[in-house]
Amino acid sequence: MSLNEQILNNHSEFLSTLRHRFLDETRVEALGKFVKLGFPTKKDEEYKYTNIKEIIEKDYNFFPKESHNITKEQLDELHFGEENFDWIVFVNGQLHKELSKISIENAEFLSFNYALNDENHKDVFDKYFNTIVAKDLAFTNLNQAYCKYGFFLKVPKNVVIEKPIHIFYLSQNQEENTFYNTRNLLIVEDGAKVEVIESHHNFDETYVFTNSVTEIFTYPNAKADWHKLQNDNDTSYLVDHTFAKQERDSLTTVNTFSFGGKIVRNNLDFIQNGSNINSFMNGITIIGKDQLVDHHTAVHHNQPNCESYQNYKGIFKDKSHGVFNGKVFVDKIAQKTNAYQQNNNVLLSEGATIDTKPQLEIFADDVKCSHGCTVGQLNEDALFYLRARGISKKEAQALLLFAFANDAMQNIDIEPLKEKISKLLTEKLEVNIEF
C-alpha cells in the first residue's frame, strides 16, 4: 500500500482519537489539499536534487505504541552539560513529565496535544496556529491533518526564560516503521527572551519518519533562539518546516546542525513584519555514507532597515549528498535592507556531491545584499604548513575543517551547546582534538 493510501485510510481513525475537535474541519480541508498536491518528486523544482522516494515507499504505523523502557542512562547520554537547563521529553509522541525537568515560571507551557484539547487556549490557536505556515506545501498540509504531538510555549511580555529549554523527541519500542507529525508553537511577547534546543532520536532498528512543523512568533524587542541538533541514526527520516515571523526591533535565530539521519530536509522561512529586525540563520552539516541533508531557506524582507544573515557550512564524505537553496526576497518598500547569504562546502571524497543555489530577488534600490557559494577541497598549502610543524595529516585536516565550520557557531550563546557541536565535529572528523 502506498503512503498516500495509508494516509487516507488512517485519517478517520486518527480524528476519532481526538477529544476536542475544533480543528477537525481544517484537518479534513488540509488532507484534501495534500491529496491534490501529492508528495513532491524530482520533477518539482524545489525537490529537484532531493529524492524522497525511499521515504514514501515504506509502510508506517500511524499510531505509535505508547509503552517504552527508556532508561535514565540512555537519557543521560543525550544530555551535554545541561545541569542548568530545563528539558522536556516526549517518548513515542507522549509528554513524560517524570523524564523531564521543568522549572519554567511566568510562562504558559503545555504539550501541543493538551493545548489542542483545552478550551481556554482556543483563542490562542485561532490567532496563531497555522497562520504563517505556507498553505501550498504537501508536507505542511499533511502535518496539519495529522498533528497531535509537540510543544507549546507562550512567554509573556518582558519575561526572560533564563534556562535554555531542550526538547527531546524520542521513539522507542516500535515494532513497525513509525510516522510522527510533530508540531511546535512558540510565542515570545514584547521584550521577552527564550532559547530552545530541539533534537530527535530513534532508538529502534525500524524506520521513523518525522514530519515536523514549527511556528515562531517574535514580538517587538523580543529575542528567540531555536537550535536544531540533528544527530539521529541511519533509520531516521526528517522533513522539517520552520516559519518565524518577527515584529519590529526583534531578534530571532535558527541554527541547524546536521550530523545524523538518513534523509533530512530542512525548510526555513523568515517573515520580517517590522523595521529594525535582525534574523540569523546558521548551519553546519557533516555527513558521510549515503546520507542526504537538504537546506532550503527563505527570508522575506517586507519592511525597511532590517538585516538578515545566513551562513551555512557543509562537509561531505563518502557518497553523501548535500543541497542548499537559499532565497532572499526584498520588497520595494524594504529600503536600507542589509542581507548576507553564504554557503561554503568541502568535499572529502570523490563520491560526495553538493548542489548549491543562493538566490536574491530585490525590488528596492537602496540595499546591501550579497550572496555566494563555494565548493572545493582543503587548501593544500595550509595542509603543508601544518604538516611541516609535526602535525599528522589526519589531525591537520581536522584542524582545518574545524576552523572552516567554526564561524557558523559564533552566535550560539549557550556554551554547553557550543561545546557539544565542537565535540560532534571532532567525532565526525574521526580525530581527537583538544580545544
From TrEMBL:
Residues 9-167 form the SUF system FeS cluster assembly SufBD N-terminal domain. GO terms for biological process: iron-sulfur cluster assembly. Pfam families: SUFBD_core (PF01458), SufBD_N (PF19295). It comes from the Bacteria. Signal peptide: none annotated. Residues 175-404 form the SUF system FeS cluster assembly SufBD core domain. Transmembrane segments: none annotated. NCBIfam families: sufD (TIGR01981). Belongs to the iron-sulfur cluster assembly SufBD family. This is Fe-S cluster assembly protein SufD.
